[in-house]
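Dear support,

We are seeing what looks like truncated structure output for some complexes. This example has three components. We would appreciate it if you could run it in full and send us the complete token output so we can diff it against ours.
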Amino acid sequence: MGIDLKELLERFGRGDRSALSRVITLVENRSSLAPEILDALYTKTGRAYRIGITGPPGAGKSTLVSGLVQVLRSKNKLVGVIAVDPTSPFTGGALLGDRIRMQEIGLNEGVFVRSMATRGSLGGLAEAATDVADIMDAFGKDFVVTETVGVGQCELDVAEACYTTVVVIVPESGDSIQAMKAGLMEIADIIVINKSDREGADNIARQTRAMLELRGERNGWMPPVIPTIASQSKGLDDLYEMIDKHRQFLEASGLLAKHRRTNIERTIRALVESEIYRTIWNESTMHHLEKLVDEVMAGRISPRRASRQLLERLQEDGE
Amino acid sequence: MGGLFDKERFEELRKKNAEWESKFREACLPFEVTNRSGRAIKPLYTPLDVADLDYERDLGFPGEFPFTRGIYTTMHRGRLWTMRQFSGYGTARDSNRRYHFLLDRGQTGLSVAFDMPTIMGYDSDHPRAHGEVGMCGVAIDSLKDMEILFEGIPLDKVSTSMTINAPAAILLAFYICVGEKQGVPSEMLRGTIQNDILKEYIAQKSWIFPPEPSMRIITDILAFCADHVPKWNTISISGYHIREAGSTAAQELAFTLADGFAYVEAGIASGLDVDRFAPRLSFFFNAHLDFFEEIAKYRAARRIWARKMKTKYGAKRKESLLMRFHTQTAGCTLTAQQPENNIVRTAYEAMAAALGGTQSLHTNSMDETLALPSEKAVQIALRTQQILAFETGVTQTIDPLAGSYYVEYLTNRLEEEAEAYFKKIDDLGGVIKAIEAGFFQKEISDAAYRYQREIEKKDKIVVGVNEFVIEDEKLEIEILKIDPRVEKEQTRALKRLREERDNDAVRRALEDLKRAAAGNDNLMPKILTCSRTYCTLGEMIGVLKEVFGEYKEPIIY
Amino acid sequence: MERKIRVLVAKPGLDGHDRGAKVVASALRDAGMEVIYTGLHQTPEVIVEAAVQEDVDVIGLSILSGAHMALFPRILELLRERGADDKLVVAGGIIPKDDIEELKRMGISEIFGPGTPTSQIVDYIKREVEARRA
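Here is the complete output from our reference environment:
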């Protein structure tokens, strides 16, 4: 399909949402145009504040995101939303249903919602989601909110790549313990107890606070616990204020700059590594590898020795 | 004592059964196959499968606890089921004509289908109503339309069923007002409003308000009708739509009864005595194609309801224990291909309903997968019931399949499966919590998807669809098309109404309704006042939305 | 890398019969597609905006209320306005034959009636999307 990249980026620059949408597709699909696009847009990034929202399935994350976005819109902020759902490992397909709970913001001019499937790429998700956040940032969004299901490492990575990470749990027996086990408490800057009109809400809030106190402050920030009832738009202003407070804290302490530095470093590393990976495993090395495997299978050499031989050969090639 | 079988001879029977089974297996046929509900079915059932069946405890006599064999002493000998064809389309005038046609052809009860805007609480001139007015039912915007709908039909002579849920209170109010104008007091009105919001969240998805205020409206109706409309069926607790959405027979049974118990609990919690409202609760089931399983489903349903109402909810009056139910043949079993075949499907389904002891029956028309039914198709559907009732002899004997090892086994199994579901729903915190967690919705859509895959793999055969197909079939049945003029006419009439009525009175009535909604007063008297001043349905719903908010569907995958 | 087919499955109109839409959504997922499901009772405006934001290849519409002749043309019109009429639009539901012909003339690519095997829908979408991408 012939794409006029210049024209596309021009439309993007004019604020055309179809162009934004198409750019995301090209980057998400790792199209051959992706590097050029990201290079071109990168200078425009760095303004959007990035919020990650994660938690177990059924915690009401999409409703919470929808509510938070409405708070942001009431303050005239432009918002991008990335809603990540898992790809089925068996079929490669995905059902992305978060929009069902985001009806109120579906036609809001200042909001752009994009659903993404994890596509099962190891670590690649964090990269892709960060790219999409960069694109929304470059488009002029003031906030980018990324929603993921809090299960699995790559989803956690996505949440952690954001500046403020909000972990959502509900008053259900053992939810806080599950969340802790899943590593959610480790990455939380703010903890939301959603559906807090349910029985046991006070209890879980207490438990969570106790757990957090046991862990102590992280970089001088003690994650607050906020009750919400997202379905009735309750507690969302508090949530926004707390996010803002965390933002001010990050900015004042220099942690935001550090956070961005870490992210940039991680991005460069990932890019270099994937490039190295791609160049190393070319046809000739694959061929050589096969032969070495034969040697190992025959019991003539050890795997370790085989790896050294391969590395030596790569070095020779490099020289 | 009371057991059906001589257990001393069971050892011998067991041996002989095993011998027979091994002979069967020699034929290299699968011993168990699955029916459309995914249930494993053996080729033969014997007393061994119903060893613990106790006649008096589990079956009893017609009209006696636990009512497995029927709720009345005389059943269809005493009174035939009501033949009630669901219909409605276009304007109130169009539907009124169709009702006169059906009554002239020997139908014994009316059943009103409303269009989607009415069902969802929008007036015909609302932007969301565009393209939907009068399409799959009749458009009713105000009492004015209701007066036309029942013109020439004396409300003390017919019973009327209205398939309406979220706005049920309003349509009931309109009906009461039409009665007032005809000089028929509300105490004499007979009929049913579906008014089953729980199955809307679960399956049919025509909701307006969130569960809590919806349940409050329902308990208001229960209380009001107990005092003023005592012959009215206040809720028709419906499994029909659950089955249509793709559930199995066991799910239909379990989810419907769970909904029923939730209404009973809500009624009790609102301060009503169970025996004051339970006698007016009725049920609505699907009649699907698996003949024996369906019959067992109705029998199990009666037994579970009676047992639970007596032991768990402490009902004292016999009427509180009786499960009266309407049945409709399964729309989802009809095919668009070779539509005439649907007449046959419907006939089998109707027979299951009759043998299952239904109190009223709707038989689908053959062309319903293509459009609204034509007059000819409706007549054949009605004739199907009449042939069943008057030519086949099914009405002569009550519950004739009782004692069939297979049917009794299925009845027991279905009851057990329902109990297992009740437990699961309890563990989730009750019906409303389970709805919010998407439990029912997921169970149903999984079952629907499983069945679809079975059809595509030809594990299940659907005649004319995946087998016995006619290539390039030409459809030769007449199709009823709704004239787009309906929307224009309806909008124009609405405009006139808004100009001609006393708008000050309208405003006052609506304010009064809003105040009541925010407080605890029974809403029915306020809705009646609104109706009498010709407030529209959309205006009343609008006011209630301001107080109650709107429901949003949960994500389930 | 293989390009995923992205499909928006939407239910315009007021009817709540989502059995078909959900079965099709599940079947498309199992065929390896990414399916965005928007839920019930959607307006043409919301559907088209979602299709644009999600940059889907295909829009699948399901309707059983009889309002297709009012809602489908509006969806097609909005797609054209947004320059998104390159997307494949397919539909399902109870739609009389005369209407099918007219809707196809208007730009709905295919209409799948009751009883259509999901495999047929999957094959159709794969074939058409590949042809459009080529």
